[in-house]
């Protein structure tokens, strides 16, 4: 065989391998397309050809500052009439910004006060559905004052329930938040406790719409049937998608609640339940619920051997969850609290930092220093404060980008002695 013939055989072999590789890749993408189209048909989602400009709409940049949205629909989601969904469309008629399942919107509300005036209040609410090109949806649970307490009930949630109607206009910041489901195909476990179901539901709907073949588990915990929301929707998804496994967990079932019909598991969501139900696979866990739930589940999952990067969580408001990686950090990395001094310049107070106080916001409030705050989770920017001297460190990456020379008090602690303009 001549050198030329040998060269031609080698080139032909390379071209054949390349053709096989490209053909296989096209086949996989075609199967994904057919699966998405089949899912869209089952869910009555219109499938249209891509029109000129659609690709621009799909990547519309987030807007800056506040944008006016009108409420076009208001809908109760639970038997107890405590969770209400609000469907929002932009008044300017421009395309909606896409978001990732689990993210939230930030609202600047104008609450009525005595004398006919109003007072601004910043609050964040999770987007409770998968991205939709026609509207956003948030779902708000009415917060009541504890029985026998003189506390004021949730101002923003009651304002939404009692004063926001179809036609109302709200001022909204663009979707944001680091707590969102990834777009890969790794199996996921979603855990929602109480109203923590709202971002988890957005994740679930996004997963099943974008990757209907993905394995998804949902553990949804409430006390009983009077508190569950979207039960019919969840059961429909479970019947339609064999790869979606629904586990409704009642901690205090009503006498009329029947196991196997109304719920699947009696008791709270804990590691024992997860170990009993889940096959051994490299799951990503997404958890949203009260702080008490996270303080139990997160360390338990770490103890079970779940890698830190596969545990994602969000609490109702502020939460201090000790991560295993933090507990095993070598001694001497952080400055002792006794060596740190926090100066509140405007208030004229110079105090030794107390790590037990939590965040700088909580520390300031414990010293009777008034600080405007909203979400208390690093999302809204209301507590942004100028740093006159020193440095701070963040307990979690904030969703709101503070301006240079400032910090968000609700999610930071002093790294060195620090002076704040408060």
Main attributes of the structure:
single chain, 422 residues, alpha/beta, Elongation Factor Tu (Ef-tu), domain 3, Rossmann fold, Ubiquitin-like (UB roll), 3 domains, 6-stranded antiparallel sheet, 6-stranded parallel sheet, 9 helices, 26% helix
**So what's the overall shape?**
globular
The CATH class assignment of the largest domain is: Alpha Beta
Euclidean distance between termini CA atoms: 86 Å
Question: What is Rg?
Answer: 25 Å
The low-confidence parts are: 33-59, 329-333
Q: How many beta-strand elements? A: 19
CATH topology of the largest domain: Rossmann fold
Question: Would you identify the CATH H-level superfamily of the largest domain?
Answer: Nucleotide-binding domain of ferredoxin-NADP reductase (FNR) module
Average of pLDDT: 85
Strand pairing plus helix content: what structural class? alpha/beta
What portion of residues is helical? 25-40%
- Sequence of strands across the biggest β-sheet: 4-3-6-1-2-5
Largest sheet: 6 strands, antiparallel
| Architecture (CATH level 2) name of the largest domain | 3-Layer(aba) Sandwich
Summed up, the helix count is 9
Structure description:
With 422 residues, the chain is of the alpha/beta class. It has three domains: 63-144 and 154-176, Translation factors (Elongation Factor Tu (Ef-tu), domain 3, Beta Barrel), CATH 2.40.30; 188-327, 3-Layer(aba) Sandwich (Rossmann fold); 337-420, Roll (Ubiquitin-like (UB roll)). Helix content is 26%, strand content 26%. A six-stranded antiparallel sheet has the order 4-3-6-1-2-5. The chain has a six-stranded parallel sheet with strand order 10-9-8-7-11-12, sandwiched between helices. It has a five-stranded mixed sheet with strand order 14-13-19-15-17, with no helix packed on it. A hairpin with a 5-residue loop joins strand 3 (104-112) and strand 4 (118-126). The longest helix has 40 residues, at 3-42. It starts with a helix and ends with a strand.
């Amino acid at each position: 065989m001549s050198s030329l013939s040998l060269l031609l055989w080698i080139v032909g072999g390379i071209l054949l391998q390349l053709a096989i590789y490209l053909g296989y890749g096209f086949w996989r993408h075609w199967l994904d397309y057919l699966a998405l189209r089949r899912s869209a048909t089952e869910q009555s989602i219109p499938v249209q050809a891509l029109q000129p400009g659609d690709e621009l709409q799909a990547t519309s940049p987030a807007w800056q500052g506040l944008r006016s949205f009108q409420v076009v629909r208001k809908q109760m989601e639970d038997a107890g009439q405590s969770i209400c969904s609000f469907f929002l469309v932009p008044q300017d008629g421009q395309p909606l910004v896409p978001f990732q399942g689990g993210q939230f919107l930030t609202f600047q509300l104008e609450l009525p006060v005595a004398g006919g005036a109003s007072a601004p209040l910043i609050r964040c609410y999770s987007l409770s559905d998968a991205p939709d090109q026609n509207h956003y949806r948030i779902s708000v649970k009415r917060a009541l004052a504890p029985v026998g307490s003189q506390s004021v009930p949730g101002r923003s949630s009651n304002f939404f329930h009692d004063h926001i109607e179809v036609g109302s206009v709200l001022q909204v910041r663009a979707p944001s938040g680091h707590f969102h489901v990834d777009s890969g195909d790794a199996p996921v476990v979603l855990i929602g406790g109480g109203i923590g179901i709202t971002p988890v539901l957005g994740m679930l709907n996004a997963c099943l719409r974008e990757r209907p073949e993905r394995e998804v588990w949902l553990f949804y915990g409430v006390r009983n049937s009077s508190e569950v929301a979207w039960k019919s929707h969840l059961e429909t998804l479970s019947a339609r998608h064999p790869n979606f496994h629904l586990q409704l967990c009642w901690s205090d079932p009503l006498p009329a609640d029947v196991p196997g019909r109304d719920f699947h598991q009696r008791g709270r969501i804990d590691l024992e339940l997860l170990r009993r139900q889940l096959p051994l696979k490299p799951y990503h866990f997404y958890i949203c619920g009260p702080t008490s739930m996270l303080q139990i589940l997160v360390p338990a999952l770490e103890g079970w051997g779940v890698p830190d990067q596969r545990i994602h969580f969000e609490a109702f408001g502020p939460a201090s969850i000790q991560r295993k990686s933090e507990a095993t950090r070598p001694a001497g990395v952080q400055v002792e609290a006794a060596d740190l001094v926090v100066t509140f310049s405007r208030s004229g107070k110079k105090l030794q930092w107390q790590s037990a106080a939590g965040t700088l916001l909580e520390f300031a409030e414990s010293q009777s220093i008034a600080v405007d705050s909203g979400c208390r989770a690093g999302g809204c920017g209301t507590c942004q404060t100028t740093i006159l001297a020193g440095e701070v460190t963040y307990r979690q990456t904030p969703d709101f980008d503070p301006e240079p020379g400032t910090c968000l008090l609700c999610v930071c602690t002093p790294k060195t002695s620090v002076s704040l303009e408060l």
